[in-house]
Design brief:
Elements lengths: L3 H4 L13 H10 L8 H23 L7 H8 L7 H36 L11 H14 L3 H8 L6 H28 L3 H24 L3 H11 L11 H17 L1 H7 L3 H6 L4 H23 L5 H13 L4 H24 L9 H19 L5
């Protein structure tokens, strides 16, 4: 007598589809048309644009010297102001600083958004791949290895000479580029995003150790000069440097918009993305290049700015309640610019001559946001 149960081939079992709200939102985002923005997303973006305009004008009016808003608008339009010094303050000092803050905030926020989608890790940010650490190492080599040019570039508050600008920004850019190339080489060899994440962390620790050794053997004035650079600042970017930073940021943001659909697919998981025909290694390398260009350029010009790249994507998801990157990318760009302007305004302590370290302000703004999100156990990410 034949045992039918033994002769039959075992049935294949397939994992049941995850019906969690996060996965449903990811599937909905990945299957939307390219320009399928919801009405809530459009209204949210319009609201952020209006808020950005308000904060931008307020940043030009507030400071150690308060200037009436009407005078600020007159200065921006090229008209005469009541006091000649007001126009100089607005155009020559506050306007490039505000524009730099907007560009840097947008770049860091988008860099963090891409990396969080790539690694599917809510704590991923621009520093996670060692890009900021590479830029910091490049700057440290100029300032701490007896480079008087780089030291004077930092201690002068504003980069006074073209050679000083080139030495510091060039070294930081080169450090970020080398770090980016190393990460890309590793990304082409490993298939696990977790392994790539660990490599980025170890690379960051290694470069931090090298900087610490340089600090140990450096002179006091060089150490203080480097530490002042690590505080971060939007005031060191001049009108001559701003177009370079702006062009690089626009290129990085353009890549972000092109990758919006791919980022939605990555939210489904690596296996599902590969099953949909996605070339994971190629997408991973493209995202690393985009995020590294955005974060590296800002670090080179402004120093390492903390928490914006990690906190802003979370805030954007909380406000708009969506995982669609066609909405998140423009919204994150605007919100990053807004929070950078707010942090810079707080750092200047309007009405006083005191300047707070920018990194301290961004940490005080960003850390409570992350703690609140952890306590709330936000399900969209």
């Amino acid at each position: 007598m034949i045992n039918n149960s033994s002769s039959q081939a075992p049935k294949k079992t397939y994992p049941q589809a995850d019906s969690s709200p996060r996965r449903k939102a990811a599937i909905e985002a990945a299957t939307e048309p390219l320009f399928g923005l919801r009405l809530s997303g459009i209204s949210g973006i319009i609201g952020l644009i209006v808020l950005l305009l308000i904060v931008f004008l307020a940043s030009l009016a507030l400071g150690s010297v308060s200037i009436p808003l009407s005078e600020v608008i007159a200065a921006l339009l090229g008209r005469e102001t009541t006091h000649a010094a007001w126009r100089e303050i607005v155009v020559d000092f506050r306007l490039p600083r505000a524009l730099t803050a907007m560009v840097a905030g947008a770049a860091l926020a988008n860099s963090g958004l891409q990396l969080q989608a790539l690694f599917r890790n809510p704590l991923a940010g621009p520093s996670i791949l060692g890009i900021n650490a590479g830029a910091s190492l490049g700057a440290a080599l100029v300032v701490l290895s007896g480079g008087a040019i780089g030291s004077s570039a930092i201690t002068s508050g504003r980069l006074s000479s073209w050679l000083a600008q080139l030495s510091l920004v060039g070294a930081a850019s080169m450090g970020a580029a080398i770090a980016m190339l190393l990460v890309i080489l590793v990304a082409r060899q490993v298939r696990s995003s977790l392994a790539l994440l660990i490599f980025g962390l170890m690379f960051g620790y290694t470069t931090t150790a090298l900087v610490t050794i340089l600090l140990h053997f450096s002179q006091i004035d060089q150490t203080l000069a480097y530490l002042s650079w690590t505080f971060g600042s939007f005031s060191g970017v001049t009108w001559q440097q701003l177009p370079v930073l702006l062009v690089v940021t626009i290129l990085g943001l353009g890549l972000s918009f092109l990758f919006a659909k791919l980022l939605d697919v990555l939210l489904l998981g690596e296996e599902q993305a590969i099953g949909l025909g996605l070339s994971l290694n190629r997408v991973r390398c493209c995202l690393i290049v985009s995020a590294s260009v955005l974060a590296g350029s800002v670090t080179a010009f402004c120093g390492p700015i903390a928490f914006l790249g990690v906190a802003v994507p979370h805030l954007t998801r909380t406000l708009l309640r969506t995982l669609s990157h066609r909405i998140l990318i423009p919204a994150t760009t605007l919100l990053g610019a807004i929070l950078a302007l707010v942090a810079d305004a707080i750092a200047q302590l309007p009405g006083s001559q005191t300047l707070l370290p920018l990194n301290a302000v961004t940490a005080l703004l960003g850390a409570p946001v992350l703690i609140w999100l952890m306590l709330k156990r936000y399900q969209l990410f």
